[in-house]
Amino acid sequence: MDKEEVTIEKKNYEVLAVGGLLIDLIGQDVANNLGDTSEFQRFQGGSAANLVCNMAKLNYSTALVAAVGEDYLADYLLNILNDVGVDTQFIMRKDAFPTSMVLVSRSLGTADWLAYRMADKQFDIKQVPDDIYERIKVLHTTCFALSRRPAQTVVMQMARKAKEHEKILSLNVKFSPKNWPNPKEAVRLVKEFCAFGPIVKVGQEDVAALFPNENLGKKTAITMFHEWGAKIVALTFGKDGSMVSDKLGSEPVFIPSTPPERLGDATGTGDTYWAAFLGAMLSGKALKQCALEGSRLASIKISYQGPLPPGIDRKVLEEEMPKKSTS
Hints:
The chain is α/β, with parallel strands linked by helices. It contains ten helices and 13 strands. The chain has one domain: UDP-N-acetylmuramoyl-L-alanine:D-glutamate ligase (3-Layer(aba) Sandwich), CATH 3.40.1190.20. The protein is globular.
């Protein structure tokens, strides 16, 4: 029998994320692919979990809706979230499914990875109290969560309710064909989610994977997401920076990337960028400043192997980061 919370403690959250909490096994040697990776180290992973952990480390109030197994790997993950201050009372433990895991290569660019999807897709709408939408500012999710049922159904139900309560919706597109047996289904669901009027983060590689035969330009891709209904679009392109836009037809603003002090690994860098972006937005900052702070936090993250370290002062993100790189 699955373990469910008997008592829900009513709290207010700046961000409630819905999606994956899983084990990342990250390669220890820089390699082009998993086949060339010989050693791995265990870390907490999952895009939605990364987002709320990063925001909790910046002292924002966060919670996560997810599912894990009834195993020691789940204990490890829940301990990490609790330690950084993420509310875990909406995370269900599933007896019938082991905790999900992803193998990731350590890479200078986009990492090679392989997912073993098990418990992560099994969360249930029963985990979520009816009044949660009155106690949040942002509902965040990812394409990873949307790619499998029953999680997909729960995410869309929650998005509709959050929209009805006039909350901010956030989507990290983060698309990979590995997660979607039918890529056309991914396009349909992203388009349907965008109709709720979310703020959207999407990587240039995500656009190329969603539309492999169309060779969409940066501005064309941004316009497309606005036409689907997105209020704000942040198009990221790794070390080459990002473009942000908050109005259909307006000129997107280019934001250069911030060079890291050293190379750790790029895993979760997009979630780090988005954590600082959302935090700055919740603080009422201008769109360009939101993207700048996202770039600066991503630079800090990529200097480490594994998750973003705790104890980062938000004020650091408001300052110009040093441009000189050190090895």
